[in-house]
């Protein structure tokens, strides 16, 4: 005991001058606490309730003689007392148990010691339970209103009452602790303690010579002897861990269900033993001086939390968060625990940091409070320059103390080893930020500790407990490329891995192998980002990877395709065009390989457009950024070269020849693509026709233009190309092919061709004669137009058109003669018809037919004769006697035709459209005159 440190963690309350109120005139026999009050039982049978500060609240007469024991229940506001009452008949004292309901107040007009409402009175001793002196009393509140009352007697027995005491629904039973062989002084029950563990209820019983344990959940209720040494009155208590505490002169013992546990040797006779908030309380009498000392022991930390000399103590209570000691002279000592901050301040002033740490941990303070104590302890060690010990304490504060607080201290002290250790712990607990990762890696690189760097980067569990991008950047900046690549690969940061390979190490082949090992989707992303560099240095291998990505060559891609999930996910070559910005030849190679392999790509239109642009461009040698400097240097060398450098001229000429050959080859490919991508059975081409025309015009590619114009049926543009080139032979051949109306051509091309030769201003008699042949053949232009057109060319003579004019005049003469004969014929027919009409109107008609026209039988009356000279029986005509059955169909068809012609003649839009499309507009007008376009009614209305 003398080795334990003493502290004043408790303090006296109420100035240490508190006592039992004067209203209590009797001697204090028993006390209890709970529900914010202290209940005192006196030897005159009264019970008083005291408020905080030991102020008298009220009292009442509980028993007529004296109150022996009482207990204030916590779950229900009941007070259970055991006392002596005088029996009215015999006037002998009877020990009774009473239950009072404290929620029912006293009558305010009654005396101060009037009795409360007693809801139950039980006699403790009956015929079955013989009377003895009560030495201990304890109540267990099982489940209100069910109570379990244990009454210890001086004969070694324990009377138990269980059930609803208020309604007297109870059962009684006896527990025998000691046998009668012992002396009476050794049989008394000096202490009781209930131990509840789940559904199990056990009862500790202590006598001066034994410690026993009863299991109340079994039948019969078995007794287990825990020790053969006991203790006296007031030296029994229960800890918050359900251990029995027994105080003896030599030590304080703790008992569990399986026997004696730890013991603590404190000198002196134990007058009182108690347990309060994890502290052991003892009132000890000094054998030499006879004085009493009240000690509060912190067993976990092996310190005395409080020690004070006291008078003779009669009762020990716990209420209002304080320890209450009632003395035999009715004075009261109230001791309360100081707050944690005050206790820690006391320890900090004495630099007892380890004690402070143990204290906050033992009292289960929050983790933040413990971390604050550890921080102060670490600060103390740091001030003493004990950096290693300080860092070990700072590490325990991780998660509660701002890391910058610690980092700043050790940066200032230049303790890089300690700082590294702290940062490692931060990462282990996954509380490190990007800055912490940067700092830790910088520490490793400064120390050149590759082994620790390996351990940190290549952890065994495979988890990366740091910010990946920060680690990569730091390792890369420190030239630890291997570690940076490991982290990037482990974390799946493929872009960083490739950035290091390409930009730092220049390992282009390894980069290509790495890309080939990736999933198709991720490989496509990386190629888009780093494709320019790869094409610059490894064009062939890069194109191979692109082909695998854009087609189904890869085995993994084939497996995915077999599952039906990959076909629509294949990337398009158009997605990778930007990486070929300075390498058009490689782009052309890639697109050619792709089109040769994939014939039905969704991006076929864009691919063909791109290929056409590459094929038709005059110069594909776009300089890359790396080539610009080389070309500038070569220009400087050329300026400084001498006249003797004749071989260089030869090389330049050879280069030009190669360039021309390469350009011709590309143009041929372009023309072939224009043809293959727009076959005769296709309505639209597999490229943008307008874009193709623009490309051909920009690059003066006449063959492509001619093909496109012809496919788009722009025949006039086709011959315009030949006209512009003055290629008369091919011009005429083109008109022969495209101007044949029988083959769907445009005959008006010959008129344009004639106009061209008429405005040429050159000798072209041979060509004009050939053109006139086709114009005459299809009668495309009137002779007068032909003469007017050719008259503009001063180089042409009349001999060119002499034969043509002669033939035309001869044809016109023949046509005039034919028209004259037709006119005469029509005039004769008209005169004959008019004469016939006059005869019909003025002369009688004689019908000489003797047979019916319909049935060919002899004609008899009644008969019907028509002016068309047809005769019929009346019954053969039918109902319609106004029309000749023989001539009626022909007459109706003529009438319908006339109506139709009149309707057509009224359509102006059709009239003008036919004039526009006809070679001879006059004939169309004459035809409409014949159909009655200008009728008498129309003229008259006009």
Automatic annotation (TrEMBL):
The lineage of its organism: Eukaryota, Viridiplantae, Streptophyta, Embryophyta, Tracheophyta. SUPFAM superfamilies: WD40 repeat-like. PROSITE patterns: CHCR (PS50236), ZF_RING_2 (PS50089). CHCR repeats lie at residues 394-543, 561-766. Belongs to the VPS11 family. Involved in regulating membrane fusion at the tonoplast and the prevacuolar compartment. GO terms for cellular component: CORVET complex; HOPS complex; plant-type vacuole membrane. Its main location: membrane. This is Vacuolar protein sorting-associated protein 11 homolog. Core component of at least two putative endosomal tethering complexes, the homotypic fusion and vacuole protein sorting (HOPS) complex and the class C core vacuole/endosome tethering (CORVET) complex. It holds the Pfam family VPS11_N. It is a peripheral membrane protein. InterPro entries: CHCR_PEP5_VPS11 (IPR057308), Clathrin_H-chain/VPS_repeat (IPR000547), TPR-like_helical_dom_sf (IPR011990), VPS11 (IPR016528), VPS11_C (IPR024763), WD40/YVTN_repeat-like_dom_sf (IPR015943), WD40_repeat_dom_sf (IPR036322), Znf_RING (IPR001841). It is found in: Endomembrane system; Vacuole membrane; Prevacuolar compartment membrane. Keywords: Membrane, Metal-binding, Vacuole, Zinc, Zinc-finger. PANTHER family: VACUOLAR PROTEIN SORTING-ASSOCIATED PROTEIN, VACUOLAR PROTEIN SORTING-ASSOCIATED PROTEIN 11 HOMOLOG. GO terms for molecular function: protein-macromolecule adaptor activity; zinc ion binding.
